[in-house]
């Protein structure tokens, strides 16, 4: 490579970079404003927040509030239910991560095999629709099924001569119900991402495979899945990062905050909400979310490095 | 090496950005106290937003400001905020002059103990004696360690527990009689009568919130967790966790009995609201003597009679139902202006009616007996509860229709009843300082919310749930908390006796 060529290349990339950077500027500003600046709030987790009236938040936080060490985390350990809460949070999340990848991939693969564009579009729309419903609405839709008196499920049960069930007082059904609801709501939307990746796979690969006599399953196994691998890995890594977070709507709104169900619906977020609802204690809530973020961050880094060792292209960083 | 250099650059950029924003926000925060063009003091008055902010609020506040400016040289900048915004405002040190505070929104005891409010003990006695006079004898609920930090809003200071009963059905159809006062358990035959006539219906109104004010007969020392039964409870040792309070557990048992009998909806623990179900013949209510809001046949489609089953209970928490606190960072001029303004609100009925009901002729009319009737415009564009803008008792009484007149001297009767029949809490003036025990309270609150709805709606059997809950709560430190409350209370009793 001679000198002028090299110069040209740098010039070119410089200009290109500038344009691209400019394009992403709104997103960068958004991230700075809403994700980086509020990070000073981490200090809340380690301070005993004692505001003085008439002084700014920063003076109150940094000057007026004494350091509290790890005291703010103690409310999490106070409850003897913590093992159960952690168990719920982790198992639900692991299940959601696995099901949230397997089912959408499955759906996407089959949807691409459909020849009728009209049918494909309709199915896609029907599957994505639940994603746009708020949890409060989903909660009441489910209530229409499960209400003790007027619910459809109990109507069915009585028609078939069975006893009506008090669904909102029977925890044993709810692990299943929550998982089904979550999958129903989220898989359509997740499917779109895989559908896009599949569409971008070179069609000629499939054509030559067919000519070589590959069956449908073989085509999926040797062409589609390997091409989806980076996408799947990306989504896996991202979701591992929020393993201690849980969808508050799913675990609080959908069971209509029924106390009898708490053994199966209580996740870390729900616990924090219930514990601090009356208190307005910013330090405790900051401590809880700091814990969630730090655990998520560590797990994310570990998963990422494992994946990088297996397949460097699929890792994120 | 390169990575380190790059990291350094990123970190320094981050610091610069953070600094800029800090300065920016600092600038916003200190845009503090203002005065009007002339000598008028402008107060930033932040109050609790109960419903939607009324459409005509600007017009009404302008009308009120015109009056107050002329009379006392003070105008207000009235602002409505929901509960979480009030908490945030207090914590972030935003400037305000006067703020809504109470036992249930923007907790008074917590803020007053933390030094958020102006100590008005001397100021209110010396500078605004008329205000002091009107609120007497309710200053105790605004006192922490003998100093006054807030101005109680005169409204229904005690809780009168009542049943709202469909009299068309029970008196008209069934020939039963509805007495003015009854025990709670006496309602059972009425429920049974309705149930036998309509087996598919549930006669007793119940939502997940439980019977309205079901804990009002107890002094709630720490939220709903630790209580003190009213009456003779002078000794600190009588402070108990709520599940050890026999009166309350009996209530839970009664409700569960009714639940099993089918008087309460099987899904009561998950129902948010039953306001639109006009078929329910028996509802709970908390109000005061002469209150008409429950009885307007136009609202219900049938006649409603109220029957009192408990109370009136006057506790620190009930008397703290609504208050105004003055910011501790105010200078004396502003603090005094706040008190002067509240004094005007408390003593001048015509002025009080402006913020309460709107502009005369547009939003409301005076009826011949001196009560107030809201016009259609008033209902649509300025329909506000009274207590967020000042004392209910200082405003004119509202009649619900021109034919159904309220008693204009209603409040006099209410306060006389408090004085004669009121059941008072023995520990008014004691505020539990929860610092150091906040983690226990948080853990207990979480456990409490697992059982509370089931217990208060009657859905769950208290004899099964309470032992479970007790075990978990004791593991989370209930004993430690009770001991601490008793210790503080004993010290307080000691000092208040001497």
Keywords:
heterodimer, A: 317 residues, mainly alpha, MetI-like fold, 2 domains, 14 helices, 69% helix, globular, B: 498 residues, alpha+beta, D-Maltodextrin-Binding Protein, domain 2, 6-stranded mixed β-sheet, 4-stranded mixed β-sheet, 18 helices, 17 strands, 42% helix
Explained architecture:
The complex is a heterodimer of chains A (317) and B (498). Chain A is mainly α and 317 residues long. Chain A is built from 14 helices and no strands. The mean pLDDT of chain A is 86. With 498 residues, chain B is α+β, with helices and mostly antiparallel strands. In chain B, 42% of the residues lie in helices and 15% in strands. The longest helix of chain B is centred in the N-terminal third of the chain and has 28 residues, at 2-29. The radius of gyration of chain B is 25 Å and the shape is globular. Chain B starts with a helix and ends with a helix. Chains A and B meet through helix 2, helix 3 and helix 13 of A and helix 1, helix 3 and helix 16 of B.
């Amino acid at each position: 490579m001679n000198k002028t060529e090299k110069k040209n290349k740098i010039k070119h990339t410089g200009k290109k970079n500038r344009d691209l950077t400019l394009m992403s500027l709104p997103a960068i500003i958004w991230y700075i404003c809403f994700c980086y600046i509020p990070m000073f709030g981490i200090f809340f987790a380690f301070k005993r927040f004692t505001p003085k009236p008439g002084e700014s938040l920063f003076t109150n936080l940094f000057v007026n509030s004494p350091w509290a060490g790890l005291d703010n985390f103690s409310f999490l350990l106070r409850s003897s239910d913590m093992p159960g809460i952690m168990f719920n949070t982790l198992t639900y999340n692991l299940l959601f991560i696995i099901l949230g990848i397997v089912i959408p991939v499955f759906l996407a693969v089959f949807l691409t095999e459909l020849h009728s564009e009209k049918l494909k579009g309709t199915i896609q729309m029907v599957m994505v629709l639940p994603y746009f419903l708020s949890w409060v609405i989903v909660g009441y839709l489910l209530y229409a099924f499960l209400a003790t008196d007027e619910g459809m499920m109990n109507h069915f049960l009585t028609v078939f001569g069975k006893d009506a069930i008090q669904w909102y007082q029977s925890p044993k059904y709810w692990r299943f119900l929550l998982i089904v609801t979550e999958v129903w709501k989220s898989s359509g939307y997740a499917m779109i991402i895989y559908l896009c990746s599949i569409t971008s796979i070179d069609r000629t690969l499939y054509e030559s495979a067919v000519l070589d006599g590959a069956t449908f399953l073989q085509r999926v196994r040797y062409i589609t899945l390997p091409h989806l691998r980076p996408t799947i890995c990306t989504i896996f890594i991202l979701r591992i990062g929020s393993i201690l977070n849980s969808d508050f709507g799913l675990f609080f709104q959908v069971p209509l905050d029924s106390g009898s169900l708490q053994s199966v619906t209580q996740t870390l977020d729900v616990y924090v909400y219930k514990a601090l609802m009356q208190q307005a204690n910013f330090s405790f809530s900051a401590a809880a979310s700091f814990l969630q973020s730090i655990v998520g961050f560590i797990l994310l880094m570990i998963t990422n490095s494992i994946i990088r060792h297996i397949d460097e292209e699929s890792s994120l960083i | 090496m390169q990575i380190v250099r790059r990291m350094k650059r990123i970190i320094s950029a981050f610091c610069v950005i953070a600094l800029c924003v800090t300065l920016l926000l600092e600038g916003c925060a200190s845009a503090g106290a203002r005065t009007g063009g002339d000598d008028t003091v402008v107060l930033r008055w932040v109050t609790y937003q109960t419903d939607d902010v009324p459409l005509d609020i600007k017009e009404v506040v302008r009308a009120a400001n015109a009056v107050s400016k002329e009379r006392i040289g003070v105008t207000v900048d009235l602002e409505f905020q929901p509960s979480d915004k009030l908490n945030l405002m207090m914590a972030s040190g935003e400037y305000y002059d006067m703020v809504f505070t109470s036992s249930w929104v923007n907790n008074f005891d917590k803020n007053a103990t933390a030094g958020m409010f102006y100590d008005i003990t001397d100021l209110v006695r010396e500078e605004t004696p008329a205000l002091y006079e009107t609120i007497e004898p309710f200053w105790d609920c605004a006192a922490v360690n003998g100093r006054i930090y807030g101005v109680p809003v005169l409204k229904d200071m005690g809780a009168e527990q009542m049943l709202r009963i469909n009299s068309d059905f029970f008196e008209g159809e069934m020939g039963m009689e509805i007495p003015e006062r009854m025990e709670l358990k006496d309602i059972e035959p009425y429920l049974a009568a309705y149930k036998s006539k309509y087996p598919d219906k549930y006669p007793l109104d119940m939502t997940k919130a439980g019977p309205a004010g079901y804990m009002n007969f107890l002094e709630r020392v720490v939220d709903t967790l630790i209580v003190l039964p009213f009456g003779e409870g002078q000794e600190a040792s009588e402070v108990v966790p709520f599940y050890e309070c026999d009166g309350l557990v009996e209530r839970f048992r009664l409700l569960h009995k009714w639940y099993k009998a089918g008087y309460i909806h099987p899904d009561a623990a998950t129902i948010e609201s039953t306001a639109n179900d006009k078929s329910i013949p028996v509802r709970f209510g908390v109000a005061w003597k002469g209150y008409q809001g429950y009885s307007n046949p136009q609202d219900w489609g049938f006649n409603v009679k109220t029957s009192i089953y408990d109370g009136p209970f006057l506790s620190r928490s009930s008397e703290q139902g609504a208050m105004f606190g003055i910011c501790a960072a105010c200078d004396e001029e502003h603090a005094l202006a706040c008190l002067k303004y509240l004094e005007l609100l408390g003593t001048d009925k015509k002025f009080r009616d402006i913020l309460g009901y709107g502009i005369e002729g547009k939003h409301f009319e005076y009826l011949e007996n001196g009560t107030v009737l809201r016009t259609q415009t008033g209902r649509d564009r300025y329909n506000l509860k009274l207590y967020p803008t000042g004392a209910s008792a200082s405003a004119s009484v509202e009649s619900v229709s021109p034919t159904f007149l309220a008693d204009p001297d209603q409040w006099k009767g209410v306060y006389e009843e408090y004085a004669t029949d009121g059941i008072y809490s023995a520990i008014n003036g004691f505020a539990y300082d929860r610092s150091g025990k906040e983690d226990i309270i948080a853990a207990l609150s979480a456990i409490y919310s697992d059982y509370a709805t089931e217990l208060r709606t009657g859905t769950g059997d208290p004899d099964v749930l309470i032992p479970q809950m007790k075990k978990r709560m004791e593991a989370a430190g209930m004993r430690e908390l009770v001991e601490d409350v008793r210790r503080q209370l004993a010290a307080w009793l000691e000092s208040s006796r001497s």
